[in-house]
Amino acid sequence: MKIKGDAIVLTGGKFNSKSAKTAHGLLRGSKRFKIRAVIDKSLEGKFIKIDKNGKIDIVLNKTEIPVFTDLKSFLKSNIKVDFCVIGVASAGGLLPNDMRADVILSLKNKISIVNGLHSILSEDNELKKISLKYNSNIYDIRRSKPRKKLSFWSGKIYKVSSKKIVVLGTDCGLGKRTTAKMIVEELERNNIKSDMIYTGQTGWMQGWDFGFIFDSTLNDFVSGELEDSIYRCFLKKKPEYILIEGQAALRNPSGPCGTEFLISGNVDGVVLQHSPKRKFYDGWEHVNAVMPSLQSEIELINSFDKEVLAITLNTQGMTDQEKLYHKKIIFEDFKIPVFLPIDEGLNGINKVLSDKYDN
Predict the structure, then answer these.
(1) According to the model, what pLDDT value does residue 1 have?
(2) According to the CATH classification, is domain 149-357 in 3.40.50.300?
């Protein structure tokens, strides 16, 4: 069965949290799934609206995407879907207990499960029996590839003439994938052929053609899978720009990541996503894991002989005044263009890139 079609997204009461970033990403746009509804007990009876920049609002306008409290209430709506996507990243990658009943009811109604958690649900004995009995499927997006399908780094990255731009972040959960997607869309609006390399499960669910699941790949093959994804995109589409979705952060102690993009991906430039209001790495306040300064992060990237071309800000939790203040002060400090993707879009990013590479 081709994994593409109408879908609902389960968020288990966590829609208004960073845990639901898969749901947020799919609502902002997917070529693979058309999201028909969200299942979230905290927003029963509400509707979800997405503006042109991807800003998500909870509204009462019935023309928007509806929210149902559970699968039972969704089934009464007579909305027809083929897939139920687990839209949260849970602690430890386990299926939350309070979502299990909805997963079971989906399978019993021949709605296949698309699972981006680390837990391999197709190996869960109860869920496996139910899916077989009701002729539904469980698709585990984070299932590791077999060794014979993995690529080792070869050096063919040096044959790629497209400009390669990676969106790195100063921390996890800042919206790197969303910014990469928005840059591609802005370049395409300006008739500049571009594409994105996904490196996480949500990017795959959004339907990008090339990429791999970084945290499901054996470490020795991460560089090769990255290289192969970029190379295949270059051969197939010949884009002027290839945007690469970064993962984690260069110095996040719970999962440092990023040098693979800078070195093995041989990127030409960096867009750096940052949250001025974060003082500690996300979730690690209790061990006093203080985030390094933005200046030191830029200097670290420069030490790899890579340039930060633009800084994009995650403005979650900021007032409008704070957003504009941080945009202004960061530009004054570093003389690097600063964008507020969700608040203002990325109009002008094409000029930043053309000024750098077209002269």
Answers:
(1) 53
(2) yes
